[in-house]
């Protein structure tokens, strides 16, 4: 039964990803926004929904390690695993805004996340605490960033439309259809991720894996599957702006929305291992992405192999660092 649930979840994710990309492209055209901005906002928020749900539930039940580990692990997986696999399928050209706006914002969010995690006094002597007011700061900064993206994109798209009279604006009926496709896609990703995660955890338990190891590997991967499917589908359909925007945007959303909202609901304790191992890896991989964006016109398959190798190394370090039970 677990294998059936796993397969059902994967199939639902693939179908949901196809609907999501189609809907996002239609909405971008109608609202005169670039596909990159739609990927950075609507698509990113949708694919970050599993992280938000898991983290809030974990914080409310007093499992702050799961809440933090879920976001940090997903952010590492989004760049090192998901982007790595995506460019192995189809090398991605890099938009200028990804280099000068989106990546800097992702790094800023990551550094601010680390600074907030170091401050405050949590329940452990050597750890930190992300306070409610820090969660509010993260969320307000996200709203300001989204406002900037939308205004900037609408101005840029308007200029392009003046230069190219052949640009086709979808009709109201097509716009409604795009919204419907987007909604179907988001629902498909939500339930697909739930079923895939449920099946994977049950199979892992049957194989005798420890619950802590399952959380570090399968849960973090499971909540990143929507990003993987959406980015792979977008790359296959040559909607490369959605693909890259989805991943960078999801990392920004994970920190500023997921951690921000979770901290507002309940302040988050941060352990020493999270500060000294997981967050350092997250920052290192975010920094490593910059040369891959600026060197050459594309993120090539070779760069994808490097990213994938870094994810495998991260998982190996995590597994080796676990205390024997």
From TrEMBL:
Chain ranges of the Sodium/calcium exchanger membrane region domain: 2-150, 178-319
NCBIfam families associated with the record: calcium/sodium antiporter
This protein's record includes keyword Membrane: yes
Transmembrane portions of the chain: 76-94, 106-124, 136-154, 175-193, 213-235, 247-265, 277-295, 302-321
Membrane topology type: Multi-pass membrane protein
Name recorded for this polypeptide: Calcium/sodium antiporter
InterPro entries xref list: K/Na/Ca-exchanger, NaCa_Exmemb, NCX_ion-bd_dom_sf
Protein keywords: Membrane, Transmembrane, Transmembrane helix
Subcellular location: Membrane
Organism: Wandonia haliotis
């Amino acid at each position: 039964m677990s294998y059936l649930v796993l397969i059902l979840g994967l199939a639902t994710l693939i179908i949901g990803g196809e609907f999501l990309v189609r809907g996002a492209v239609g909405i971008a055209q109608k609202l005169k926004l670039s596909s990159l901005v739609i990927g950075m906002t609507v698509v990113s928020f949708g694919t970050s929904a599993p992280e938000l749900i898991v983290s809030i539930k974990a914080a409310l039940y007093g499992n702050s390690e799961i809440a933090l580990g879920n976001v940090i692990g997903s952010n590492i997986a989004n760049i090192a695993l998901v982007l790595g696999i995506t460019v192995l399928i189809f090398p991605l050209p890099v938009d200028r805004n990804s280099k000068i706006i989106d990546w800097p914002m992702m790094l800023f969010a990551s550094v601010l996340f680390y600074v907030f995690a170091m401050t405050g006094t949590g329940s452990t002597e050597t750890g930190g605490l992300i306070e409610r007011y820090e969660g509010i700061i993260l969320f307000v900064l996200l709203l300001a960033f989204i406002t900037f993206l939308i205004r900037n994109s609408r101005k840029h798209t308007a200029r392009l439309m003046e230069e190219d009279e052949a640009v086709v604006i979808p009709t109201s009926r097509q716009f409604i259809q795009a919204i419907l496709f987007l909604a179907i896609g988001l629902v498909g990703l939500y339930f697909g991720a739930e079923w895939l995660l449920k099946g994977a955890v049950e199979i892992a338990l049957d194989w005798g894996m420890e619950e802590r190891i399952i959380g570090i590997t399968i849960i973090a991967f499971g909540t990143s599957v929507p990003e993987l499917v959406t980015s792979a589908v977008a790359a296959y359909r040559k909607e490369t702006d959605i693909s890259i925007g989805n991943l960078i945007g999801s990392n920004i959303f994970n920190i500023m929305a997921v951690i921000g909202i979770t901290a507002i609901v309940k302040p988050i304790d941060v352990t020493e291992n999270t500060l000294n191992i997981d967050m350092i890896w997250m920052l290192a991989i975010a920094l490593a992405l910059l040369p891959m964006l600026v060197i050459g016109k594309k993120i090539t398959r070779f760069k994808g192999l490097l990213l994938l190798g870094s994810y495998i190394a991260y998982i190996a370090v995590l597994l080796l660092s676990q205390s024997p039970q």
